[in-house]
Amino acid sequence: MSNAKLNAAKSVIPLIPKKGAIGLGSGSTVAIFAKELGRQIAAGEVDVRVVPSSYQAYQLAVEYKIPLTNLDIDPILLLTVDGADEVDKDLNLTKGGGGALFQEKVVASASERLIIIVDESKLVDYLATRYDIPIEVLPFSLGVVRRKIIDMGITPTVREAQRKMGPVVTDNGNFILDLKFSEPIMDPAKVAVDLKMIPGVVETGLFVGMTDEVHIGLEDGSRILK
Ligand code: 5RP
Predict the structure, then answer these.
(1) Region for 44 from its dihedrals, namely left if φ exceeds 0, alpha if ψ lies in -120 to 50, beta otherwise
(2) How far apart are CA 77 and CA 29, in angstroms?
(3) 101 C-alpha to center of ligand 1: Å?
(4) Which segments of 67-208 are extended strands (E)?
(5) 156 lines ligand 1 (CB under 6 A)
(6) Would you write out the chain's pLDDT as a tens digit for each of its 226 residues?
(7) Are 23 and 110 spatial neighbours (Cβ–Cβ below 8 Å)?
(8) Class at the top of the CATH hierarchy for domain 133-204
(9) How far does the centroid of ligand 1 lie from the alpha carbon of residue 182, in Å?
(10) Where are the domains of the chain?
(11) 129: which residues sit within 8 A by CB, 6+ positions away?
């Protein structure tokens, strides 16, 4: 386990509320946080339940005996702790490296605060610098979405599964297109809207204006961007 990810996860521990519902993001950094959350719950230090943002997050909750809830019972979450693939200087994010961007965005939107935990390698000046932008696409619409994306000057690639033939199928039964931009994104809000306006695009991995704090893990500590 990387020390930087561990330090990012540790940095957010003091923000865990004593009681209530929170969102549990996805990824390897969140997995470290989930383990500590489970320990605190088992020790009776906090009385927290979570809405998982993916099947992986659900599995983490089950593994660490974290009580589960959902957005029907708890439509307002005190906070969500999640990871990211890129964080720009305005705290906009690229997410979806693990294919979970759609439910992650829904859970984030239900949260009073979105706290992101990353190691320093995720920091960029502009999004799409070191990571392609994933979008979730309805399989029925794949051909037309791909054509419209190419018309926008962006190169889409269907994300292929690793140990199954064919495309990655998301928790919602959709496909992921990874979008290669010819240059970094200067106006992520506009790009997010333009992409989302294409019928068949279920959601984008651009999280614009949603983040409250980014906890950056370093090899020997952490720092916080607000
Ligand atoms: C999954 C995500 C993850 O939060 C993101 O990929 C970061 O993961 P990690 O903490 O493993 O680097 O968006 O869809």
Answers:
(1) left
(2) 20
(3) 9
(4) 80-82, 86-87, 93-94, 114-119, 133-137, 155-158, 175-180, 201-204, 206-207
(5) no
(6) 689 999 999 999 999 999 999 999 999 999 999 999 999 999 999 999 999 999 999 999 999 999 999 999 999 999 999 999 999 999 999 999 999 999 999 999 999 999 999 999 999 999 999 999 999 999 999 999 999 999 999 999 999 999 999 999 999 999 999 999 999 999 999 999 999 999 999 999 999 999 999 999 999 999 999 9
(7) yes
(8) alpha beta
(9) 23
(10) 3-123+208-219, 133-204
(11) 86, 184
CATH 3.40.50.1360 at 3-123+208-219, yes or no: yes
Atom of ligand 1 nearest to the CA of 122: 12
Categorise residue 98: left if φ over 0, alpha if ψ from -120 to 50, beta otherwise.
Answer: alpha
Which residue do the tokens 């889409």 mark? 156
